[in-house]
Write a structure and sequence with these properties.
By secondary structure, the chain is an alpha+beta fold. The chain is built from four helices and four strands; from the N terminus they run ααααββββ. 52% of the residues lie in helices and 20% in strands. It has a four-stranded antiparallel beta sheet with strand order 1-2-3-4, covered by helices on one side. A hairpin with a 5-residue loop joins strand 2 and strand 3. The protein is elongated, with a radius of gyration of 20 Å.
Length: 128
């Protein structure tokens, strides 16, 4: 998350808590904090489910690399990629951060990430 998004998120949280206090007093603040904690738990649970599913499969393997290639898009976050692949990627390089997934036919998708988001990807066919 970039700095602007972080500031916007915290501003929204403060506005919700302040609005709850203005409307319902301390009971409103308690309700707003409870709702925010529940939302954070839902986000955490989603990430844990994606990691659990990825950990149960072989590293760097996908059923079809071509289909993965078509579903990728710029700005996609790493947890979304893990949900698509249901596998942890094989790390190829640190700079730029590059991960790879291969299918049974030998086709490979290499994904470059910056700050946990897709910046570029490439499909490498087995026959070429």
């Amino acid at each position: 998350m970039n700095r602007g998004a972080t500031v916007a998120a915290w501003t929204l949280v403060i506005a919700v808590v302040a609005g709850s206090y203005a409307g319902y007093g301390w009971r409103g603040v308690l309700l707003a904090v409870t709702a925010l904690c529940f939302w954070l738990l839902l986000q955490f649970n989603s990430v844990v489910r994606a990691l659990r599913a990825a950990a149960a499969n072989p590293v760097g393997q996908v059923p079809n690399a071509v289909m993965l290639h078509t579903k990728l898009h710029r700005g996609m976050k790493l947890p979304a990629i893990l949900k698509l692949t249901r596998s942890l990627g094989r790390k190829l390089a640190d700079e730029p951060e590059t991960w790879a997934w291969t299918d049974a036919g030998g086709d490979e998708v290499q994904v470059q990430l910056a700050a946990g988001r897709v910046t570029a990807w490439e499909l490498k066919r087995a026959g070429t």
